[in-house]
C-alpha cells in the first residue's frame, strides 16, 4: 500500500513546499531551488553502501522521484555499508529491491521505484540527473556519452576500501547562479570621493568581505546617481574602501547610503568522461599526490576488465597484477614520472572491501552534487574528486588475518582485518546527542559492529519534531513526539540486532552526575559528541580529560561541517582552544542607533524575551516561592525596581481579564515602540542636529528614523 501511495504522488511546479518538513533546508536552498528540486527525476545505479547513501540523501532533500537500478543479488560484503540490506537478503534479493523497502519510507513527497530492465537511451531520457556507482568503466562511458549529448547531468562515484572517487559532467555552459550560497554582504557608506577613480569608504563597523566584484547602491544622499544603478564593477583597495570608476560627473556625496554585494553567476564547461580522463581536472582537496589516485582507479577498471573480478583482500599475487595494470595506465597516458607502487598495492589489498564511514562521506558529497545539478546553486565539483583514508589501515594485515567468513562485517574485515574488527566490536562508546549527526553515527556504528561485544550508550533529552524528519533519517512520522534517543536506538537495533545499546533521556551536566557517574565514564573506551551547544561540549570535554578518554567532536552549519578528534596525550583537548568571543552590540545602538539588520534582530529578541518570558517567570516565582522576597533583596536596587514594576504591571495595572484587554495592551506597546520612542529620539536629536565639530549628528552609522 505504501509503495502504491508513494509512486502515485505527482509533484508539479505549482506544488507548495512543506515548510514544516523542509524548514531547515529552506534556509540554505531557498524556495526557488526547492521548487527546481521538486521537478527533478534522479536515477541511481548501483545500490552498494555508497549507492544507498546517495539515494537516502537525495530522497530526504525532496526531489520529484528517485529510480533505483541494481539487479545484483545482495552479498555478505554489502552488509558492512548498505544499512537497508539484511542477512536474509543475501543471495535472494537484488540490491535495489532490498534497499527500496526502507527508502520508500523516508519522504512521502518523493516517488521511489526500482527498475529491473536495461539502461537504454529511451529509459535514460526520462531523467535530469543520472548517478552511477559500482559500475564497469565501459558502461560508465556509454551512459555518460548519451547524457553529455542530451543535457542530462551525470555523476559517477565509487569507494574501494579506504579510497573514494567522484566524477561530474553537467555538460557545456552549465549555469551556476549562486557560487557559494552565502548571503550577500551589505555595508554602510561613510564617504564617496568625486574624482576619476572614485573611492567608496565604508564605516569601520565591519571590514569588507566581498566574494563578488559587483555591487549596487541605495539610500545615498547627494550622489543620488548611484542609487538603483545596474551592478557596478569594483576594485577592493583595502579593508574599508574600494574604487568604482569615474565619479566626477555625479553630484557631491552628502551622507548615508548602503552598498550591497551582487552575487554574479558563472558558466562552467564540463568534458565527457572519455575526454576528461586523459587530462583530468582534479579538485585540490588534499595535500596528497592526487594523480596517483586517478591512476589507481583507472588501473582497477583495467584489472576488472582483464580478470572479471576485484583483487582479493591482501593477496600479493593480485597486488602484483594490479601494479602492472597501473604501470600500463601510466605508460599510456604519461600522468607521472614516478608511480607510487606502495599506494597501488594498498589500493589492491583493500579494493574488494567497503566500510560504512567511507560510504557516508562520499554519499554526502555526491548527494550535494545532485542538488547542485538540479538547481545551479553552489559551485559543483569540476570534474574529478579523490579522497582516501590510508592512515586508517592497520599495520601487519595479511591475507590470513583478513579471512572472510560470510559475516555481515566481511566488507570491513576485507579492509581492516580480523584483529581490528574484534577491537571495534569490543568498544564501549557514549554518544551524546541523537539528532542529525547522532543518527548518522548510530547507522555507521551499526554497520561497523561497534559495541556488539561491548556496549553503546546514547542520550538525548529532546523529542522528535516534524522538521527533524528531513535530516534525522532514523525517525518517521509515527515517531513524532517520541524521545530521540530511544527511537534512534531502536532503529539502530533494527539495522544490526547484535548491537548492545542503551538509551537515556537526560542531559549531560553536573545535575546528572548521579546517572553518568565517575564509574560510568571510567568504564568507557570513548565518547562521541553530537551536540548543538557549547556548554555541553565543554562539560563532555572536561569529563574526557579527567578520565583520559578519546573524544570525537563534530558540528554542522548549513552545508558546512567541522570535526575534531581528541586523543589523550596526542592532541589538544576541545577546551584548549576557543573561537574568538562574538561581538556584543551596545545597548544604546540597539535602542537608539541601529544600522544593521543584526541590530534589529537582536532588539526584537531582547524585547520579546522581556515582554513574554522574563516578567512571566518573575510572576510565577513570586506566586510560588515563599523565599522570593528574601532572594529579591540580594539583587541591586535597579534590578529590584525592574522586577517589582514588572510584577505589579502584570498582576495589577495591566492585568488582562479578556481578549479585548490583550488587544489594548498590544496596541499600547505598538504605540510605545513605533511612535512615542521614535518621536522622543528625534526630539532629543533632531535630524538637522550639528555636533560641536561641525559634522551632522545623523551620519556614519547613525541613521535617522
TrEMBL record:
- Tell me which UniProt keywords the record has, alphabetically: ATP-binding, Ligase, Nucleotide-binding, Ubl conjugation pathway
Q: Which Pfam families is this protein grouped with? A: ThiF (PF00899)
What pathway does the UniProt record associate with this protein? Protein modification; protein sumoylation; Protein modification; protein ubiquitination
Instruction: Give residue ranges for domain THIF-type NAD/FAD binding fold.
Output: 22-391, 409-637
MF terms from GO for this chain are: ATP binding; SUMO activating enzyme activity; ubiquitin activating enzyme activity
Listed under GO cellular component are: cytoplasm; SUMO activating enzyme complex
Active-site residues, record numbering mapped to chain: 588 (glycyl thioester intermediate)
What does the record give as the reaction this protein catalyses? ATP + ubiquitin + [E1 ubiquitin-activating enzyme]-L-cysteine = AMP + diphosphate + S-ubiquitinyl-[E1 ubiquitin-activating enzyme]-L-cysteine
Top EC group: ligase
Top-level taxon of the source organism? Eukaryota
BP GO annotations: protein sumoylation
- Enzyme Commission number(s) of this protein: 6.2.1.45
Q: Which family is annotated?
A: Belongs to the ubiquitin-activating E1 family.
NCBIfam families recorded: Ube1 (TIGR01408)
Q: What is this protein called?
A: E1 ubiquitin-activating enzyme
